[in-house]
């Protein structure tokens, strides 16, 4: 049985209408988050979500980060920083994955 994970995801920088679009991409690619926070930070919007759930079948934390990031980038049509921290239910060690512009260019060419 797949392990449940506590997932915290943050997406930045966003325009004022983009947090809603990012949430839509996350819901389509995975699940509807249990906790959502959006706030302005340094002239842009920051979206944070938290969720307790299983990762999609067959995906480890790195693949999960790529999967969500691609969905978000395709929804927005541009790069934004996506950071995912996921902690397996039976672990005290969170795994932090963050994709930068180089990752964006590479992944968008192949998807």
Key words describing this protein structure:
111 residues, alpha+beta, five-stranded antiparallel beta sheet, 3 helices, 38% strand
What is the secondary structure topology, with strand pairs?
Layout: E1 4-14, H1 18-29, E2 35-41, E3 44-54, H2 61-76, E4 81-88, E5 95-99, H3 101-110
Antiparallel strand pairs: 1-3, 1-4, 2-3, 4-5
Question: What's the gist of this structure?
Answer:
The protein is of the alpha+beta class and 111 residues long.
Describe the structure.
With 111 residues, this protein is an alpha+beta fold. The chain has helices at residues 18-29, 61-76, 101-110, and strands at residues 4-14, 35-41, 44-54, 81-88, 95-99. The chain has a five-stranded antiparallel β-sheet. Helix 1 crosses helix 2. The chain is globular, with a radius of gyration of 13 Å. The N and C termini lie far apart (29 Å).
């Amino acid at each position: 049985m797949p392990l449940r994970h506590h997932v915290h995801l943050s997406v930045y920088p966003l325009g004022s209408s983009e947090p809603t679009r990012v949430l839509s991409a996350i819901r389509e690619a995975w699940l509807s988050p249990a906790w959502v926070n959006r706030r302005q930070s340094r002239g842009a919007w920051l979206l944070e979500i938290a969720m307790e759930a299983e990762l999609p079948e067959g995906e480890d934390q790195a693949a999960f980060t790529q999967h969500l990031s691609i969905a978000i980038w395709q929804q927005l049509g541009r790069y934004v920083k996506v950071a995912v921290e996921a902690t397996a239910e039976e672990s005290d060690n969170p795994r932090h994955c963050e994709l930068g512009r180089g990752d964006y260019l590479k992944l968008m060419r192949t998807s």
